[in-house]
Amino acid sequence: MKKVLLISKNKRVIEAFSAIKKSPSCAFEVRSRKTGVKCSADTLCYIDVSGMQPDELERNIAEHMGKIHPWGLIDYEGSIEDVGSLFHLGVCDYINLKDGKKLKVRRIQQVFDFHSNHSSLSAGTMKKVPVRIKPSKPLAEYALSWSKVKSGKTYTFCIMYIEMLPSTEVSGKSGAAYKEQMQTAFQNMISQQIGPYNGKVWMWNDWGGLVLFPSDGKNCDTLIMAMRLLINRVPLSMENGPFNSILSFRLALHIGTTGYKVRGQTGTIVSDDINFIFHLGKNKLEPGHLYLTDSFFPHLSENMRLLFKDQGVFEEHRVYRMTSPYGSGT
Questions:
Q1: Domain final residue pick, 67, 97, 117
Q2: From the CB of residue 188, how many other CB atoms can be counted at a distance below 10 Å?
Q3: Same domain, yes or no: 7 and 72
Q4: Residue 141, domain member (yes or no)
Q5: Do 247 and 175 have their domain in common?
Q6: Residue 96 within any structural domain of the chain
Q7: What is the pLDDT of residues 263-284, one digit of tens each?
Q8: Last residue of a domain, one of 117, 135, 161
Q9: Does residue 55 form part of some domain?
């Protein structure tokens, strides 16, 4: 009987192996990480590399190079740039599950046959495995600092979507002056919170909008700020403005590309990423959570990723969610 070991925490990846799990010809096992597991020659080991940083991916590949057992990679987002090069490193199978693909039992035997007919690369041949991860889409110049950002040019920013959800009483019964007072207080509070992280309120309409942060595509300082917004929602409600209730808001972070114009002159901007983050905010986000997209999530450390749960795909982007201990507050 063939043995199949899957190293993954992603439920959708595990579900793709459902036929393997049910097959009487395979002994199937799932582990969240490869700790203390020794694979024999009759074990096919699949490693889910989705969201891994390049150095982490290289370590995982180097660990399996030259082993006696066949092994393969699960690349859910299709992020590895040169798939063909993997097979020169000893990989026996590569699977991209982005389109909801399910594995068939006969594939397992095909991988074992491939392994028996091709000698794997000997261990220690390379000190560093040259595996390149491609971005989800071509990126413009990163906006590294506001001093270098020019109106009319296109940059890649860290973009935060935030929208306050007023209580039913406020939205239905309060007068226009009080609503405007609350909207101003909320915007001022956000400006105060983002200031130390070099953020700027950019597009704003009534109860919320977009905040831009200079980004190098790797720094996650804005994540700490967003976590504080979420977790400190109760004290922020008491310390800032005339809210008279616990603040409830939608919140998400995305790394995306857009033309830049100063606030108040953004009406002509055309950007797929800006359209996406607004659609995400209006159609996917629920209050009481912090959402990250697949452009931001890969830059998190392994421990930070454990705080977020996969929420599926929205408009071709995978979305992850962290939940506040206080709930939604609605």
A1: 117
A2: 13
A3: yes
A4: no
A5: yes
A6: yes
A7: 989 988 989 999 999 999 999 9
A8: 117
A9: yes
Does residue 276 sit within a domain? Answer: yes
Task: Specify the residue for token string 């203390």.
Answer: 36
237 within 8 A of 330, measured Cβ to Cβ:
no
Mean pLDDT of the chain: 84
Stated pTM of the model: 0.61
The side-by-side arrangement of strands in the sheet containing 154-164 is: 200-205, 208-214, 154-164, 249-259, 289-293, 317-323, 309-314
For residue 47, give its domain range: 2-117
**Dist CA 243 CA 166 (whole Å):** 9
For range 134-140, the mean pLDDT: 52
Beta carbons within 10 angstroms of residue 157's beta carbon = 27
For 325, phi then psi, to 5°, come to -65, -15
The domain tally of the chain equals: 2
Query: The domain spanning residue 260 has which CATH number?
Result: 3.30.70.1230
Among 30-34, 69-73, 257-261, which stretch is predicted with the lowest mean pLDDT? 30-34
Per-residue HEC secondary structure of the chain comes to CEEEEEECCCHHHHHCCHHHHHCCCEEEEEECCCCCCCCCCCEEEEEECCCCCHHHHHHHHHHHCCCCCCEEEECCCCCECCHHHHHHHCCCEEECCCCCCCCCHHHHHHHHHHHHHCCCCCCCCCCCCCCCECCCCCCCCECCCHHHCCCCCEEEEEEEEEEECCCHHHHHHCCHHHHHHHHHHHHHHHHHHHHHHCCEEEEEECCEEEEEEECCCCCCHHHHHHHHHHHCHHHHHHHCCCCCCCCCEEEEEEEEEEECCCCCCCCCCCCHHHHHHHHHHHHCCCCCEEEEECCCHHHCCHHHHCCCEEEEEECCEEEEEEECCCCCCC
Does one domain contain both 99 and 234? no
67 shares its domain with 24: yes
Report the DSSP beta bridge partners of residue 210: 161, 203
- Among 232-241, 247-256, 317-326, the range of highest mean pLDDT: 247-256
- Euclidean distance between CA atoms 298 and 305, whole angstroms: 9
Same domain, 108 and 13: yes
